Amino acid sequence: MSTLKDRLTADMRSALKARDELTTSTLRMALAAVGTAEVAGKAKRELTDDEVLAVLTKEAKKRREAATAFADAGRAEQAAKESAEGEVLDRYLPRQLSDADLTALVSGALAAGGFTGKAQMGPAMKAAQAAVAGQAEGGRVAAEVRRQLGL
Q: Which GO terms describe its molecular function (predicted)?
């Protein structure tokens, strides 16, 4: 079992004992998503910490998008609940890079690979994503790569 999944399970048990309903329900949802990812495919398998982190990132993004949608629809109470769930999940995610740090990492990755022009967008994105290593959302990375390639 991955250490991140162990930590989620232990924290859920602690939240249950403390009668923290928000944390309990959020961590149950996250563990259910991890369980679903484990059984996806042809055979059940244990997820690595990186794979569990990817599932948590996806779930946190869903919460942010849902909070925005609820806020736009005028449902402030539901938006606040989704935001709170997102904050619980953010405790388990790596710190996001600042714009300056992201710019520096992407420019270093592009310089190392010698990427220029639109035709090399795919390989440039692969190198940039490897350099960032989950510390920024893909959309932010793609926007920065496009900006630096002059697209």
A: carbon-nitrogen ligase activity, with glutamine as amido-N-donor; transferase activity
Q: CA 149 to CA 108: how far, in whole Å?
A: 13
| pLDDT tens, position by position, 25-54 | 999 999 999 999 999 888 888 888 888 888
* Structural domains in the chain (count): 2
Element (H, E) at 44: none
Tell whether 82 and 108 lie within a shared domain. Answer: no
The stretches of the chain forming alpha helices (DSSP H) are: 3-17, 21-39, 49-72, 76-90, 99-113, 121-132, 138-149
Residue 103, Cβ neighbours under 10 Å: how many?
14
CB 109 within 8 A of CB 141: no
Residue 47, Ramachandran bin (φ over 0: left; ψ between -120 and 50: alpha; else beta): beta
End-to-end C-alpha distance for the chain, whole angstroms: 43
- Structural domain of residue 123, as residue ranges? 99-149
HSE value, Cβ hemisphere, 13 Å, CA-based, for 107:
9
pTM comes to 0.76
Are residues 24 and 65 both part of a single domain?
yes
110 and 55 in a common domain: no
